[in-house]
Structures are given as structure tokens and as C-alpha cells.
Amino acid sequence: MKKILLTVLALGAATQGAMAQSTVTVYGVADAGLVFDKDANGDRLSRVASGVASGSRLGFKGKEDLGGGLAATFVLESGFNIDTGTSGQGGRLFGRQAYVGLTGSAGAITLGRQYSPYYLALRDVADPFVIGLAGTASNVMATTGYRVDNMVQYSTPSWNKLTADVAYGFGEVADDNKKNRSLGGAVHYIDGPLNVTLTHHRKENVTGTADTRNTLLATRYDFGMLQGHLAYADNRTLTNTKSNDVLLGLTAPFGATKLVASYIRHNDKSALNRDAQQWAIGAFYALSKRTDLYTAYGHISNKNGAAFVVGNATDDGTGNSGFNLGMRHTF
Asked: How much is the pTM?
């Protein structure tokens, strides 16, 4: 009897050790809100929308210890529309993210469908709205390389408060590796409350004859009572039209409430001079650690026929606005 008991205890200890070395986490976001968009003519569009503050999703992520400081990782993340129950990202099973990789003392390498370094810098460092709500920076600024298929990315370990990412998205066109490919990278300097990121993204067209190029310098500083955001972007389109963007923003927590605000100026360098300005304000109220209520208002003023819009507002070349009110639950 004693031998059987010892065997059971040994097996239990071995199982716990194996579980400690290999983990799989199920997580997600359920986000729905009321969206009210209006153009300068007063035409309105009211709707219930999914993922207003954060994209609704169901995800799986895991890590296995391979020994010697090396670990295997994976992420599978499926987007869905909570207002209709349909799949997001055009119906892809894991349209938000799908990658596998290795991480260790020499850095991390991942392969699959991933966010570009440029997009992550815009979302996580520059934009106080975190690419959500009526005030999202993506209304005016390029979210180039939002998600990149067939991407290989290498992230370096930290060195003197510096880290870097290098990413290459294969175009997978048989006759020319240049066609439809993506190239990107970022350098991060993080020192306590200060985060400074310089990033670049280049996307070739399907014929390999032209490309878009976007460079972003993003800064976030935590003053304690509030966070300040400052960003400058330099852009070039497929037709070689040039522009730049300047973003000023703040994030201010007050107990269970968090206020966010931003101002973005888009400067068109073409002869058409199609400039635009966006200002926005929003608030989050935490009901718990996992559930919050949110609201936001954003307004865009267009010049000379610029076509920027808030949400699904109709563009009339002068201005439009949007208002959100909703709830987000994370699990």
C-alpha cells in the first residue's frame, strides 16, 4: 500500500512539473457599443457595433519550456463581431493573429500572421485611444501593415535599455520575391516612464512597381498623474504623394476613471493641399478589473476635399464626427 501511495505521489509531482513547464491560456474580449456618426450636412448613421474600444476576440496562447532558456510559443486569435455573431477579418478562422515561434536569451523569432512593428508602435505608444473608439488615430494616420501575412519577425533581447524588431513579409509571388512583400522594423528605447520608438514600414504593390512607405517616431512619458503622447509620421503613397502627421495626446487616470484625449494634424504635401485635423476625447470607467464602460467623441475637419472620416460617417469634404457609448469585458 505504501509503495502504491508513493508511486501516486511521484506521478502527481511529475505531472505538476510538466504543467509548470508548458502552459496554454485561453483569453478574449467581448466589446459592444452604440455608435453615432454624423457628417457636416447633418446626415446620421446610428448602429450597434462590435469591438468599438477593442476588437472582440477569442484567443489561445501557449509556451513550452524546451530547456536551456529556450521556449516554444504560439498565438492563435480569432476575431468575431459580437453584434451579429459572425467571424471578423473576412471570415478567417484566426484572422487577428496566428503565429508560432521560439524565444530565448538571444531574442525571439516568430512566423505567421502578425502585427507589424509600425502598427504596434502607433497603437501602444503613440495613440492614447489605442486604435479604438471615435478618436482612433487610424481615422487620419496610416495603420500600414496592420496585420501582415507570411511574416517572419525577429526581436532582440534588451541591451542598454534598447530593443529592436526586424520583420519581413513574404509576397509569395512565384516570379518575383519583391511583389507584394512587406519590410519593417523598429527600435525602442525604454527607460522607466519613458518609451521612445522609431519604426518604419514598406509595402510593395502586387506588381512590384511601387510601394508605400511610412516612418513613425512615437514617444510616451508617464508623469505619474498622467501620460503624455507625442508622435510624428512621414508618409509616401503608391503614387508618391507625400504627407506627414503630428499627434499630441494624454492619458489621465483618476481612480476608476481614465480620461484620454488627442489632437492630430495631417499635412498633405501635394499640390492639392488636402490637410485635415482631428480632435477627440474619451473616458473609461472600470466596473471591475475585467469590465469597463466607455464613451468617446471625435471630430474631423477636412480641407480642400480631404476624405478622412470618423467611423462610417459620410465624407463631404468638410467635416464629420462620431460618438460612442459601450461596454468591454475581458477574460
From this structure: 0.91
